[in-house]
Every structure is written in C-alpha cells, then in structure tokens.
Specification:
The complex is a heterodimer.
Chain A (H helix, E strand, L loop, with lengths): L2 E12 L2 E12 L3 E5 L6 H8 L7 E6 L2 E2 L4 H7 E4 L11 H11 L7 H11 L15 H14 L4 E5 L7 H18 L2 E6 L2 H7 L2 E6 L2 E6 L1 H9 L4 E7 L6 H9 L4 E7 L2 E6 L4 H10 L4 E6 L4 H11 L1 H6 L1 H5 L9
Parallel strand pairs in A: 3-8, 3-9, 6-7, 7-8
Antiparallel strand pairs in A: 1-2, 1-4, 4-5, 9-10, 11-13, 11-14, 12-13
Helix pairs in contact in A: 3-4, 3-5, 4-5, 8-11
Chain B lengths: L1 H11 L1 H4 L7 H15 L1 H23 L1 H6 L9 H7 L8 H17 L4 H6 L1 H6 L5 H35 L5 H31 L3 H30 L8 H15 L3 H13 L11 H4 L9 H32 L5
Helix pairs in contact in B: 3-10, 4-6, 4-7, 4-10, 7-10, 7-11, 7-12, 7-14, 10-11, 11-12, 11-14, 11-16, 14-16
The chains are: A alpha/beta, B mainly alpha.
Chain lengths: 334, 337
C-alpha cells in the first residue's frame, strides 16, 4: 500500500538543539496514527515539516504524493492542519472564520455559506454559528478548528494536541467525531498528543517520539509483544474448582521451555510465558482433566508501553543531557 | 450523519462548485484586512482626526481665500485651490503641516500589530497552513492599508475640489489639479514609509506595544530631537562663517540640508511645500549667479516635480527598504520562533 505520509531521514535543528533526528515514518491511507511524546519531543516540528511550514535540514517528506519542501502549496491544499495553539479572528463569527478559510482554499463563492453551515452542523456548532469567535469556549474553538480542517475536504487531517484544555466529556465527543470521520469518510488522521489514553482510544497505530527520535511504531498488540514478549506474557487461568493435583500440574509445565513460571493460588493458575502460548496452555490443562472457567491475558496499555520504552532507553537518555535533567513525562495525564 | 453525507456530496461535486466565482487568496486576504481596518475603533478615531483637521483647515482657508487671492505680493495668489490647502490666518497650521504629524500616526496605527497580533493570537499558523504563499500575508497587510489610505486621501482631495468649486465657482486649472494629486500621492508615500516601518517592527517584536512604541519613538526622534541634535552638532563643529568663503558657506549649508533630509518628515515637508507653492524654485541655498535673471514667477508642474523628485524618491526608497527588510525577516522566520 502506498503511504500517504512518507518521511525519510528527516532532520531539523534549532541552533545546537536537535528537534528532529533522522525521522523515518510511514503512515498509510485510512488509518488513525497517534504521534506520542512529551512536550518538546519534536512532534510539532515534524508536523510543520510535513506541511512545508518549516524547512528540514536534511531528508525528505512526501505527503499526499507531493514533496512538502518543494511543493508546500499542493500539500497544504490536501492536508487539513489543526495547530495546538489555535486562534481565530475574534471579531468575526464562527461562520465567518470558516468562510474565510474556505475562500483561502479557493472554494467557489456560490454556496460557500451553505457549505460552511453544513460543516458547522457536522461538528456540532450549528447553534453558535453566528456568534463571535471571541465568545467560544475552548471546546467550541477546537470544534471550529476541526470544521476549518474539514471544510477544505482534505485527504489527510493532522491534529496537533487536539484535546488540550477540553473537559473529559468534550474530549470523548471530539474523539468519537474523529473516529466517525475516519469510518464514514475514510480520512487519514495523524493525531499528536501526550495524553496516552486519548490516543489509545482512537488510534490504529502509534509512534513513540522522544527527544527528536522516533523510538517505535506499530499497533498496541505488536508494541506490547515486542516489549513484553521477551520478559514474559502473563496469562491467568481460572479453574472451576481447586486443581485435582497441583504438583502434577507444576511438574508438567515445568518441562515446557516457554513457561517461565507457574503460580497456583487456590483455583487460579498464573503463568508467565515467553511468547503467546495461551491456546496451547488451555489444551494441555483440559487434557490433564481440569475444567476451565475463565482465561485472561494481561493487556499492556500505552502507559506500560511508554514506561517500558523509557526504561529500555536508559542508555539513550544517559547520552542526552536535556532528557537526563527533567522528568520525561511530567505533563502526562493519567 | 445526514449532514456529513451532504457535506461529502459537496466534496465530490467540486466541478459544479467551480462554476461559481473564485477569488485569489491574495484578494480574499485584502478584503478581510480592509474590512478589519474599517471596523476597528482605532482607525475610525484616527480617520475622524484627519477628516476634522481637513475640514478645520478648509474652513480657515475658505474664510481667508479673498485676502489670499487678492494679495498681489504673493506670487502664488492666483492658485486658488492650492491656497485652500496652504493658506492660513495663523490660528492653526496649514493642512500639509498638520499632515506631516498625522500621516506618520496613521501609518503606525495601521501597521504596528499587523503580524505580531496574528502570531500572538495563534491565527498566523492557522493561516499559513492554508494553500497560500507566505509573502501574500505581508503583501495583503501592506496593500490593504495603502488602499484605505489612498481612498482616504483621494476622497479628501475630491471633497476639497468639490467644496472649492461650490464655494468660489472658479474652475480648477489642470496645473492645480496635478499639484493637488501630487500632494495626495506624496502624502500616501509618506504614510507608506511609516506603515512599512511599523510592519517591520510588528515582525521584529513579539509584543504589539513594543512595536508601536518603537515606531512612535523613531517618529518622535526625527520630528523633535533630530533637528535639535543636528543643530547642536553643527554649532560644535562648524567653523565661524566669518572666516569662510562664499563657496565654503554654500557647501556647509548644503551639507546641513543633506543631514536634515535624512529625516522623512523633512523630505515630506520640502516636497509638500514645493507642490503646493509653485513659486518655490529651489530647496537648497542659491547663489546670486543662480538667481540673476530668474523671473519671480510660478514654476510649471513639471519643473516642481523635478525639484521634489529626490525627496519623493528618497521617501519611496525608505519605504521600499523597510518593506524589503520586513519581507526578508518574515520569510526567513521560523514559524515556531
């Protein structure tokens, strides 16, 4: 599949500070990709380079089939970008702000207001269309920002910290709206955030960004397997009653090379295995004459993946003074 | 999802929508900027001040027009319409002198927060994310402000001519019309200089107050302190004229005039006076040889234009230099800086 965003060895420095270091990343059509990282990790700089708003020191950014450095206008025509520091013209109404952006995107005058009203309705701002933008709440401004992104009918949407400063209910609605847009219109969404659980709710794949470097990309299960597969996957098997012969069970599984440990506490068996061998374990337990009531495998969320990445990158952080001095995820909200 | 479908329908029906009129992004921005200026209170206040000054000057000029017109000692007495802009009874300065103070204020008011306000409010990044060229933003800001200024001064000029016609019933001479239009153009260029200077500061300084104060400081320096400073330096360094030859005195005077002409206000004042007073034959010291044989009559428009050409081109060069520097800084600036 042809990627909609293809970044190759993208580098950007501000003086002696390296904001983005040899970034290689591919994002495919129709997916929601989450760019994760703490403040100052280089997420926004990478986005600006994808839009041709900042010139990279080296490397290339191909977005929607166009080189973002050489042909930024074509890229911006096809990409809707909602910046983190979103500002509108306070003297204009929400609708006027939207119409202005539509005109800048070369939309025909005929029917432009009706189209803008439709988009306002789509993002849930129909009632506030004719109110000045200065009276909008933070959540309403985010929605207006999304409306501005949608009115240009983009192929790709880039949302930089879109949930910043919105209340939990607003975040939920906003994320649902993004998900529905991807589902209904097949839009590709790149979402940058340091709010892990927000990203986890909507993203198909994530990229973990630290100090200008992309440490990992992939979906949650693959990242989880990659990180926790070697140290062990925890599988809990609940039996219908106490095991007939606990010692025999222990002895049986102790010969398995994939099983690192087995703890039996009452009617619950707790396995730590190398790799995912849950089906194999279930089959064997049934063969041994035990009845299974429930099976659960511990799912690692982004929180654990994140923490694990920092744990694993100790060598990297030791080389980097700026990271060593400050907590990496001081601003993270759990 | 009905709305979504409708919206999507429009998205796929681009060919149909393109039948309608499309404005270029530059025109869209100019329209929005003009609308913002016209609706802003600070512009309305300054506009009221300029219009009030104009009508007050016109009233005083018209009250004294008979005396000015019949004053045969004045070589420009026959230029009735020029007298409307330059004649005064001493109760208030003539219009062009007042404009030398108000025009910079107008330019600074329109430009001091052109870029930094957009940057501080977060709308600049949003704007730059649209398919427009970065320089179009700067050009639109400059063009729309100049458009308003031009409209203002051309309207005032026409109002003055119409008022003069109604009041006196005297037909305007082509020479006078050209001179009045020349004066209006000169004032526009003068405002343009301070406009481009204040836009430059609006890019250089993040805070609008800093850029406004810096522009006002420069205006105040050139208007008030610069002549004082030049006089002080001249007194300290210029040799006693009693020990100088005629040509040395001429040379020193020319040097002093040249130093004074670094100030944009001096350039404007020289040029405006020459345009509105056709009898002015030179803007520098003249020797007896130059004066001998000269007929004390008004100069034709073309000759006056030749005299003020260095002043006009100086103001234009200053405006272009400021704008070019603003353009360079804006284009080179990192969006996140």
């Amino acid at each position: 599949m042809e990627p909609i965003i293809d970044l190759k060895n993208l580098c950007k420095s501000y003086g002696s500070h390296t904001a983005v270091d040899k970034l290689n990343m591919k994002i495919y059509r129709g997916e929601i990709f989450g760019l994760l990282g703490p403040n100052g990790a280089g997420k926004t700089t990478s986005i600006l380079m994808m839009l041709g708003l900042t010139e990279p020191d080296s490397g290339s950014a191909i977005v929607c089939g166009h080189d973002a450095t050489r042909d930024p206008i074509e890229v911006k025509r096809k990409v809707g970008y909602m910046p983190d520091n979103l500002g509108f013209y306070p003297q204009l109404t929400g609708l006027e702000n939207l119409v202005y952006i539509a005109r800048l995107n070369g939309m025909a005058e005929k029917g432009i207001a009706e189209h803008a009203r439709r988009v306002m309705e789509l993002v849930g701002l129909k009632a506030a269309s004719d109110k000045p933008a200065s009276t909008y709440s933070r959540g309403m401004k985010q929605r207006l920002g999304l409306a501005e992104v949608l009115i240009k009918e983009p192929e790709l949407i880039i949302l930089d910290e879109p949930t910043l400063g919105i209340d939990p209910a607003g975040v939920k609605e906003f994320l649902e709206l993004i998900k529905s847009l991807q589902r209904e219109q097949g839009l590709t969404v790149l979402l940058s955030s340091h709010h892990l659980h927000h990203v986890q709710q909507v993203c198909d794949r994530v990229g973990i960004f630290v100090d200008g470097k992309l440490l990992a990309t992939g979906d949650l299960p693959s990242l989880s397997a990659e990180l926790f597969g070697s140290t062990g996957i925890e599988t809990a098997i609940q039996l219908t009653r106490l095991p007939k012969n606990a010692d025999a069970l222990k002895a049986n599984f102790s010969s398995w090379p994939e099983v690192n440990s087995l703890t039996i506490s009452g009617d619950k068996l707790q396995f730590t295995t190398t790799g995912d061998i849950t089906p194999k374990l279930i089959r064997r337990i049934i063969e041994l004459g035990e009845d299974i009531q429930a099976v659960s495998r511990k799912q690692y969320g982004l929180d654990e993946i994140y923490e694990k990445y920092f744990e694993n990158n100790t060598n990297f952080t030791l080389d980097n003074e700026s990271i060593k001095r400050k907590p990496l995820f001081g601003n993270r909200q759990k | 999802m009905k709305a979504l479908s409708a919206s999507h329908y429009l998205a796929t029906d681009k060919n149909k929508s393109k039948e309608g009129r499309q404005l270029s992004p530059f025109k869209v921005m100019v329209r929005k900027e003009v609308s913002d200026y016209v609706r802003s209170w600070r512009f309305i206040l300054l506009l009221a001040l300029v219009v009030l000054t104009f009508f007050a000057s016109m009233y005083i000029s018209m009250s004294n027009i008979r005396a000015s017109f019949t004053n045969s000692n004045d070589p420009d007495h026959a230029f009735l319409y020029l007298k409307l802009l330059s004649a005064t009874d001493g109760s208030m300065p003539p219009f062009h002198v007042l404009m030398s103070f108000l025009a910079p204020l107008l330019g600074i008011t329109m430009g001091f927060d052109a870029i930094n306000s957009e940057q501080n409010s977060g709308s600049l990044t949003r704007l730059l994310a649209q398919p427009i060229y970065r320089d179009n933003i700067l050009l639109a800001k400059f063009y729309s402000a100049l458009l308003i200024i031009s409209t203002l001064f051309i309207s005032l000029t026409l109002l003055m001519i119409g008022g003069g016609l109604l009041y006196t019933g005297v037909r305007i001479e082509p020479q006078e019309l050209l001179r009045i239009l020349g004066f209006a153009l000169l004032t526009m260029v003068y405002v343009g200089f301070y406009l481009s200077l204040s836009i430059l500061f609006s890019i250089a300084f993040r805070q609008a107050a800093t850029s406004a104060l810096t522009a006002l400081g420069i205006w105040l320096f050139f208007t008030v302190f610069y002549p004082i400073l030049v006089n002080l330096i001249i007194r300290a360094f210029l040799p006693d004229p009693a020990y100088l030859t005629q040509s040395q005195i001429m040379g020193y005077n020319e040097l002093i005039m040249d130093i004074m002409r670094i100030a944009p206000g001096q350039l404007y004042s020289d040029a405006a006076t020459t345009m509105l007073m056709p009898s002015i034959r030179s803007l520098g010291p003249m020797s007896m040889e130059q004066l001998s044989g000269a007929i004390p009559s008004p100069l034709p428009f073309r000759e006056s234009l030749v005299i003020v050409w260095p002043q006009l081109s100086g103001l234009l060069a200053g405006s272009i230099a400021c704008f070019a520097l603003a353009y360079y800084i804006f284009m080179r600036r990192e969006i996140r800086s």
